[in-house]
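User: structure tokens for this one?
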Amino acid sequence: MILFLDFDGVLHPEPCFDKPQLFSCLPRLEAVLRDFPTVLIVISSTWRENRSITELRSFFSSDIGARIIGATPARKDIPDIIEVIGYQRHAEIEGWLRLSGEPWKDWVAIDDKSYLFKPFLRNLIKTDPARGLDEHAEIVLRQYLAKALA
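Assistant:
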């Protein structure tokens, strides 16, 4: 199972101008992921555009950071997939899956911007951008992972 992870509006509220609030929801996500040790992480956040994988991992606890296996490709690198799918974040995820050689891999995305995905996508967990990964989103994510990994 791959978790495609956005940062802004998920790991902290968006917008986030208060440095102490940055990654304020990360402990909640890490607690969920520790209960599902087979879930790997791919960064789908725009933070991937100007930071290395090493730098992105550094925001996480070492055990969770070690599970980050990559980042989705840039829009310019997958123009054919963008054209077919039309929804940017969803297309970037599909691009990563195809480039991985395992396009059938089970996945879930957690994001605050549902308009970047095809409507009614069952493997999208939407967060409230003003709250990030709150208690409700945590419950939905836990239920999704428990069912998918059963």
